[in-house]
Amino acid sequence: xxxxxxxxxxxxxxxxxxxxxxxxxxxxxxxxxxxxxxxxxxxxxxxxxxxxxxxxxxxxxxxxxxxxxxxxxxxxxxxxxxxxxxxxxxxxxxxxxxxxxxxxxxxxxxxxxxxxxxxxxxxxxxxxxxxxxxxxxxxxxxxxxxxxxxxxxxxxxxxxxxxxxxxxxxxxxxxxxxxxxxxxxxxxxxxxxxxxxxxxxxxxxxxxxxxxxxxxxxxxxxxxxxxxxxxxxxxxxxxxxxxxxxxxxxxxxxxxxxxxxxxxxxxxxxxxxxxxxxxxxxxxxxxxxxxxxxxxxxxxxxxxxxxxxxxx
Length: 312
Prior knowledge:
D-Maltodextrin-Binding Protein, domain 2, 13 helices, Arc Repressor Mutant, subunit A, five-stranded mixed β-sheet, 11 strands, 2 domains, four-stranded mixed β-sheet, alpha/beta
């Protein structure tokens, strides 16, 4: 059994297509198919359910894929550990982050990058469910997501900062005289919100329900930037996390109004898979958190929350 054969198998599991898997591995499709057939011969079980195209793995194949992912991850961890003893940390740290936290990634990782200049970062925008799967399948090393809302399974949680919420709206619109706004009042405003597959949206919907109302957005998107573009048109408002507003500043022509009744706050944190060995790059990132203190940096912009007088 060769590591290359396991890499071909995990590539097929990720791509779900023989030709794309071969392309990802920089080999021909016949070479990839032959390597997987050799694995089947060695294990004496069929791994792939074959047809004119890839249709999935057998029950035995699913178990072998999971085993191959673990072996490759442990091999990479071993290589990183040995290399770090000789020349310091290097390699690629793969991070999956929910869209509302992407603005804080640089803040969270800056100390890590300074301490380990030979490490590169790969950052992907993912839903919380995708982060859960990515950690389980060894596709990412670390996730940045909510740690106190929907259950996360088989992970270690490391809180980073608390997320609060404000209504981003036109500076001189109908809400110009509001210093705060209740969730019930916000439900009456034309809204654009993140799509329902985002945990942020589910948190927002829960807040509206706690206020005894249901919000029906006019626009749904999976992009925070798109939300801002609609608010800029002066016809819609958007519920935004205060960390995004604090780190980006309130866009010109808009103002952020704190949302109250109920008060809503959720914990954002780093998550890693609950298994050994722990990826050395993930551990190194966690070790730099005490040098960063993102919560203090975020709250420095608005020490008592999103002050209503802060407008542009």
